[in-house]
Design goal:
By secondary structure, this protein is of the alpha/beta class. It is built from 18 helices and eight strands. Helix 17 links the parallel strand 6 and strand 7. Helix 1 runs antiparallel to helix 2, helix 4 packs antiparallel against helix 6 and helix 12 packs across helix 18.
Length: 484
Amino acid sequence: MDKIITITENISFTMTDSILELSYLIASVLFIVGLKMLSNPESARRGNTYAAIGMVLAIITTILFHKQDGQPIGNIGYILVAIVIGTIVGWTIAMKVKMTAMPQLVSLFNGMGGASAALISLMEFPHISAALVAEHGMMNGHVLAILLGLVIGSVSFAGSMIAFGKLDGRIGDIRSPLMRYINIGLLVIVVGFIVYIMTLGSVKIDEITYLIYILLAIALVYGIAFVMPIGGADMPVVISLLNSFTGVAAAMGGFLYNNQAMLTGGILVGSAGTILTVLMCNAMNRSLLNVIIGAFGGGGAAMVHEEGNIREITLSDAAVLLNYSQKVVIVPGYGLAVAQAQHICHDLDKLLESKGVEVKYAIHPVAGRMPGHMNVLLAEADVPYEKLIESEHINPDLPNTDVVVVIGANDVVNPAAQDDPSSPIYGMPIVNARAAKNIIVMKRGMGKGYAAIENYLFFNDKTRMLFGNAKDTLQALVAEIKEL
């Protein structure tokens, strides 16, 4: 009878283990399919839902079927309460956040992911197998995964919190040449400390647990120092880089727990974030190495420029100019998001198209405060995806464009990026708005952009300024065109 019971238990354990592994496989497939669908605004919402279903499946099956040394997961009540609280808080924040604050929300949520990965490492370090250390010393993959998860997760958390503060205007930049050397020094210390711990040989884990907290502190300081010098128009790059850090840190947790769903999710986030970082670096004409050591950012003195005169345009003149154009290109920026004017902007382009005008949108990769900010903003207003043209593809058409309408954009159309070697944005590819036959710039005033430098485009002979809140101005402009 005992033998039958043992066989039954083994069969049950095998079935349970198989169900768990199958659920992880399904979850991983849902992650991959969801990520693929995020590449198109028309399928992005569905893709996000698929990925969320995959995560829910992985969580439920882990709670029900995961066993450690033959024992099921404990404290399920606490886990469920934490899930409910987290769901309510996350849902409430996401529903209330404004589109202009979306970058801050991304930084905050990304930081929480990094913190979670770091906490996993903190909890797992004291429980490293004594037998494993006795046989292989500290030089093994399990220890390396713990240390990397701790460091990368801590850097992601600390850096994301600083990024949140910068985007929210609560933290300023530290502009000092010394920061380059401080960051390089901290990075060397972090790497050296990891090497030191892994070369300790056969030791008692409880006697060296304090080392993990020292490493945590150094990593947090590096995360803060690495983001502090970064400012101006470079923040989208650091957001995508920190996002990739969180993915890599989560993947380390997947290695520790042999959890395929966690591993796949971390790898997808890490690789996608890295690819996006490289694309952002190319868009900003920065090197990835400079991002890592925190050696770039806004600021810096630009050469003296003879500004010239500002020329304004009336609503009626702007309406006539747009109404009788053949090709119009709209360049959206952060000001459009601040004014929540994306819907009325879409109304304008539909009105112009009804009058036979071809309207497209020039989307700069780093317009706004995070990668894809303008794409998300305009997708919310149901602007067709095919009308959103990346700057490098639309620039050749601008000389044949009758009017470029710049709405709340600044640095991404600034000719200083091409003309002024002393400018902090010099070398950055821009939407070459000045190549168009006519330029209308909608702004509330003559304030500078996120890079805090003067925009030479405003003084161009072909530029006309249309001052006012973007939403109110666009509404008035639509009314004027309808009366023509």
